[in-house]
Amino acid sequence: MIYASSSQCMKDLAAVEAIDYFTASRLMDELQCTDNALLFHCFIALSFSLRSGSSCIELDKLANQILWLDEGKKGYQFADYAGIEAAFSGLAISETDNASIVKIGNLLYLRRYWLFEQQVADNLRQRMLVSADSEFALSDEQQQRARHTLANLFADSMDAAQPDYQAVAVANALNRPLSVITGGPGTGKTYTLCRLLLSLQAVLGEQINIKLAAPTGKAAQRMKESIAQNLAKLKVNTEVGAHLAIESMTLHRLLGISRDPVSPRYHQDNKIRCDVLVVDEVSMLDLAMLARLLRALPDHCRLILLGDAEQLPSVEVGQLMKDLCPLPHQGYSQTALQQIQQLLPQASWTNQLTQQSESKTDYLTVLDKTHRQLDSDSPYNISALANLVIAGNSRDSWALLTDSVQAQGDMFSSPQLTLNNTAQTVDDESLIRELSQRYYAAIAKAANIEAAFKALNRFRILVPTRVGQSGVEGLNQLIEQQLGYATLGKWYRGRPIMVTENDYTNGLFNGDVGLVWPAQNGQLVAYFETLDGIKNVPLSRLPAIETVYAMTIHKTQGSEFERVALLLPQQNNRVLSKELLYTAITRASEHLYVLADENRWLQAFDNPSQRYSGLSRLLFA
Ligand SMILES: Nc1ncnc2c1ncn2[C@@H]1O[C@H](COP(=O)(O)OP(=O)(O)OP(=O)(O)O)[C@@H](O)[C@H]1O
Question: Which domain, by its residues, includes 212?
Fold first, then answer.
């Protein structure tokens, strides 16, 4: 027995949880090696890293490390790599064995995740190959139609001095079973998608079955709204775009997942019926869900994935956008370039596109020019800050924030960015009180539920963590107090709530946001904005929920608010990273308030968010 109990283990090892202890103990029993402390701690590390979203661990990275050491905790010192290898030798844990773990070289997996990675990689590798005789290749006549459509859709950029990567993305995707389009907010992913779908209809026929999906209800709803807005602005000849379906749905619904995600309605023997599937917000998609999706996708279906590769990865295991989008993009193979040039013969810039012999990422297009009108007006804008942050430019990003204060003055009248440098000005609490009064008080005063949702979506306070005074829980209490709701009891008109577990009976999912509001008979119920409109659920039938004036940055993926206040905690926190800052910053469409001091801001850049995954090796090795 390495530890007398799970509590002894947690007493000795900082941040280790009971689940890690029990997973490691189960594996030790299964492999009948009960007294090998080194193996036990490798298994603890495996369970620990699964909880942080990695699909595997790299055993060589454990060598000679002291992990889980903290004040009052002993931690554990790992042996060198030779010692670790020796501990695993003789165990039947290869690909062909039946053990619950698999070791491939330096990578250690739970078999379940290894299988998911294999399935995903096999399917995607097939889709990455495009041969001249593939069923996706365009006939001469289809190419002719594609040229005509692209010339029409991208008429304005044919003579541009620089390549128009939106046009490249469309031309590049037309003959492929897999396309990935990545870019930050406002770079025109949806604008490009609309043109791609219209081009596919022009080439393949308007009757093609297109399905649109996203990992969460909120993301699916945003996708639908954004497509509708982009189509409304489309000024093209009506011979293209006469008809385009814009219904979007969650991946759960697409796959027919009810209670049990392990047995969805659609799978390898009952495939989804569609010719083109678009998935938006792929950074939120986890490995297991992608594996299920690919199993259920017919071979002839074109798969188009959209997302921001720089955003935080999914809450669950995987980092698919990062694995699929090695950045910066190295360029296209000669064959891919020929196809792009053939379909865009009038474009003056196609010879500027980078060629890379044997490119393995022809399926990828990176959009890097922001098209949000707001962004061009002032140097102190949200995209400029987001770009500096994701480039790891800690000091310049802080300088942009401090300069914006000097240049723009007043916190509430400046156009896009404001910093409350708590080292110099008002403390966080006073400002949070002021912001709450300014934005949240309007929710309960709204005339009806639609207006209340509008008021709620105007503003959100984002923080990295749940606990503590500057965590979600402390802030929600503070705001309820400030607004005078603390004495109203648990349920009051205008209380914003977030669902924290999947509830298949009511069709509510973890992360769905609603409002408590009186029904027609005056009784309080919970309303939710869903893809099918606003629906209500009696308070007694709600699943687990929490108040959501403030929410964690992780939970905001796939959402956007007009105004965001990003509050960084006083103490350095392990979860802070530049990806977390970037995700928070890019949730704001009009204005971002940053509440931090220099130390807190700079510290976030010292904690890179690291996940392990074997997928990119499988795809590109
Ligand atoms: N080439 C373009 N010319 C003019 N307007 C454009 C162009 N590309 C995008 N836009 C406009 O810029 C705005 C942002 O584009 P879009 O919604 O497609 O970005 P996005 O990358 O999907 O953003 P997000 O990730 O935030 O959803 C939209 O109003 C869109 O119509």
Answer: 129-371
